[in-house]
Amino acid sequence: MASSSAISQGSAPIQRNKAAEVNPQANHDKPQQPDVAFSMAQLWDGTAFIAQTAVVTFSLSLSGRLLTRPLTLFSWHPLSQLLGLFLLLQSVLVLQPTRTAGQKRVGQTVHAALNLASFAAFAAGFCAIYLNKERNAAAAGAASAAHFTTLHGALGATLTAMLAGQHVVGLTMWAAPALYGGEARARSVWKLHRVSGYVSLLLLLATFGTAAGTGFVRNALEIKSWVFYVPMALIAVGVLPRIHTSKLGFSTKKA
């Protein structure tokens, strides 16, 4: 029985090859994607469409409101953070749909580039608000300004530190896995990197949510809180269902 089964299984590829020879057009009608094929359209697949629609509409509407006002040093804080949010979301989504080894390699390269760009934007926004407070304090005759005294400021500072560590670990794992004792050990650290990445994204959404309660948003821009809350919730709805729990080490099955 075993030999009979083996023969029947072994003959299957031969039969398929013969069928292809009889009807070669069947192979040409269906496009064949190489292992390295990677399409940026994957960024909009499935629930990602919800997240992308939310971040684009939110970023454009808030940027438009900001640009109708005179640009100041402070203006670069929200503008840079919006750019950072958009780029960071792309860096997360770009890895979620990868299937083959080739797609993962390309995805990781794009992921690293987007992360570097997003961190540059976040760092610029952080510097803008920090320097703006220092300048205002100096104009008022104070020795220095009080920083990170609000929930929004504290979350922002925590997030910036987390992202800095996240980027250092991610880049070194990708470029020099030997630093972690070899590729096998780096792979285990990679799972922690993924978990930390999703935690950072949720913290970023929370930080944007707390911005709705700042005096600038309420008094200067006169924007209702739901304009911040709804897009942040939709981004989470668009990202979280695409998580592969097996890649986080929580299960053996792919989500």
From TrEMBL:
Protease: is it a keyword of this entry? no
For the keyword Membrane, the answer is yes
Q: Where in the cell is it found?
A: Membrane
Q: Where is the composition biased (Polar residues)?
A: 1-14
Record keywords: Electron transport, Heme, Iron, Membrane, Metal-binding, Transmembrane, Transmembrane helix, Transport
List every stretch annotated Disordered. Answer: 1-31
InterPro entries the UniProt entry points to: CYB561D1/2, Cyt_b561/ferric_Rdtase_TM
Molecular function in Gene Ontology = metal ion binding; transmembrane monodehydroascorbate reductase activity
TM spans (from-to): 48-67, 79-98, 110-131, 151-176, 197-217, 223-243
Residue ranges occupied by any Cytochrome b561 domain in the UniProt entry: 43-246
Protein topology in the membrane: Multi-pass membrane protein
Q: What is this protein called?
A: Cytochrome b561 domain-containing protein
